Amino acid sequence: MFFGPTLLFLQDQNTQIHLLCLSIGNESGLGEIRRNELKSSCMILGIDIENINIIDHPSLQDGPKNNWNPILISDIINDYVTKHKIDIIITFDEKGVSSHPNHIAAFNGAKHFIQSVTTSNNVILYKLTTVPILRKYISILDLPLTYQFKNQNHLNHLIFISSFNNFILARRAMTSHQSQLVWFRHLYILFSRYMMINELQLVK
User: Fold this and answer.
1) CATH code (residue 94)
2) Which SUPFAM superfamilies match (predicted)?
3) Contact (Cβ atoms closer than 8 angstroms) between residue 167 and residue 7
């Protein structure tokens, strides 16, 4: 829904990708359905099933009213990074793209890991840039503005743009999330710039 252009670019470069999802999305009681939908979506994007890890922790339950502890998230990230020798983490930024508290908590946990855990010394953290709402739904038309505001240091500021074929693939992956495909998400698939453009900023 948000990271498609980045994931598909990395797949095209034969990069090994791991997905660490901090919740099964059980706010509406559909957690097991959404767990399986996420796995199906990731497999369409080319992520190996053994590299998909979906957490179901009692203190990390889906929902905008549930506060997630950044230290707990940091500990989970630390365990996963250490076990799988991860060298780059990509997550939401402090605005969470949609301002969802769980997205923001994911960033806060990753930031805590990078800043506080000694095993993070060789790990790089990138965050997905949140753009103003007027730019969020103009798809590829946002590209000139994206480059206008781009940091000149190309390592601190990365831009990934999907080809048409990759857009179609990301769209197919989104349709795996049948339990979430209400009418406005069909519009999201068509018009969201995050289906076509990802802008990442280096945190550390």
Assistant:
1) 3.40.50.10320
2) LmbE-like
3) no
